[in-house]
Amino acid sequence: MAAPVLGRPEVAARGDLNVVAAGPADVIDQVQPVLDVVGCRTWRVGEVPRTANVVKVAVNYNIIHALHALGESVSLVERHGGSAAEFTELLSSTMFGGVVHQVYGRIIAERSYWPAGFTLELGLKDLELAAVTAEEAGVELPSVDVLRSVFADALRDVVPPGADWSAIAEVTRTPPEGP
Q1: Less Cβ around it within 10 Å: N or C end of the chain?
Q2: For position 161, what pLDDT does the model report?
Q3: HSE value, Cβ hemisphere, 13 Å, CA-based, for 166
Q4: Cβ distance 21 to 28 under 8 Å?
């Protein structure tokens, strides 16, 4: 069986991770008491263990897209005189009430990328896992190359090492250099 988890370090410390489990039902049943200690919910996603890993990769791929969209949206609002904090609160209080927009929206608005819950380097690794997983299945992910470029720019030019992966927001957020 496989049982990757979803959640930042503070979520893990509370035992509130979401567990993505796949494998024979009887095997998952046997380890469920352990999964209940670390997680608030176990999501059973199939009989083939690798399916759990693919689901985890797909979740992180969605998070990467959300982080990038938040960065671009915050940049747009700020460049027109708006408040990043107000904007991300609006998003997370209305149309995008999930954990990604609430937690990462605040981190991006405050530029509080340290300590990292999940580093830029790990985010790029997960982006590459999504690309490989898609290629194996013959699925085209047109945004992968754009996101690779964003991560490369963040790691090379924009953000000091060890930053949270949400710091990809700084790629579009950093004001352009003058002439």
Answers
A1: C
A2: 87
A3: 22
A4: yes
Distance of CA 155 to the CA centre of its chain: 16
Token representation of residue 62: 């969605």
To the query of whether residue 56 is one of the catalytic residues in this protein, the response is: yes
Euclidean distance between CA atoms 116 and 147, whole angstroms: 19
The burial class, CB within 10 Å (0-12 / 13-18 / 19+), for 10 is exposed
Catalytic residue (choose from 4, 28, 56, 109): 56
Pick the closest to residue 52 from 5, 107, 91 (CA basis): 5
Q: Centre a 10 Å sphere on the Cβ of residue 56 and count the other Cβ atoms it contains.
A: 20
Please identify which residue in the block is written with the tokens 């290629």. Answer: 135
Read off the pTM. 0.94
From CA 132, how far away is CA 99, in angstroms rounded?
27
Q: What is the pLDDT of residues 137-176, one digit of tens each?
A: 999 999 999 999 999 999 998 888 899 999 999 999 876 5
Single-letter residue type at 26? D
Residue position matching structure tokens 């380097």: 121
Look at residue 46 and give its three-state secondary structure: coil
**Which of the 8 DSSP states describes residue 39?**
E
